[in-house]
Amino acid sequence: MNKTLFVYETKYGSTRDIVQKLALVLGPSAIITPTNFCDKYTEFDSVVIGSPVYNEQFLPEIQQFISSKLEWLRTKKVALFSVGLAPSTDSFFSNILKELGDCVVWTGSFGGILNPEALDEADAKSIKRFAELTGFSIAYKDCRDDKALSDKAIELKRTLKNSLTMPENELRKKINAFLAAHNTCVLSTGSGDRIRATPIEYTYTDGALYFLSEGGEKFANLLVNPYVHIAVFDPYEGFQKLAGLQISGKAEVIPADSNEYARILMVKGLDYKSMKVPVALNMIKVRLTRFEFLSSELGLEGYDIRQSIGF
Question: Most buried residue, 135, 136, 171, 235, by CB count within 10 Å?
Answer without folding.
Answer: 171
